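Issue 218. Parser rejects a valid record. Input:
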Amino acid sequence: MKNTITITLLSFMISFSSAFSQEIGKYSVYLGISPFGGGINIGHNLNEKTSINVGFGGAPEGDIPDAIKPEIAGFSDNYTHTAKSAWMGMFVSHQPLDRFSWFRVNAGFAVGSIENTIKDGEELYSADYNENPVSYFGLTFGKPPYKGLVYGLDIGALFSSGADFSHNANGDPDKFNALQDGVPGLTNVLPNIQITVGYCF
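Output the parser choked on:
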């Protein structure tokens, strides 16, 4: 059963890839959404395989949904986590395999900040990423840079030296240590899933 599903998916992807027979566009403009907020990417397609992209964006301060908040040792179930971000970056996107035009490798660097505020009663903790620049590596799946509507899904990660942690006068040392020990989403490697839709011309 597993082999049948795998073969079916591969066949679909090959057919999907070969369906593209349009003219390559020189420039692309994408709108995207990711855990780091919304953004706009402007791309220059050097050829069918390689593009250079400049992007910028961010998110205003808002609550992290309860459904994705991790359990942190010592923290109550009612703690709140808010975050905001602002960033810009430059990336090179390359199609390494001729047969799979829908697959690309994306790498580059970004500058900006991600600020996290965690509150538990009167205790206030901060985890801020202000190191610049940070590197990025990802894999992109989507339509090649042919003229017209373009879209993609990018799965990757930002690589940093980690957050700067601090707390107010009410902060609990044990809880603070639990934060620093490595909470999902507050580590050196920040996962990213970005969906983009745009236009190539």
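Fixed in the parser; the record now loads. The CA atoms of residues 105 and 139 lie 5 Å apart.
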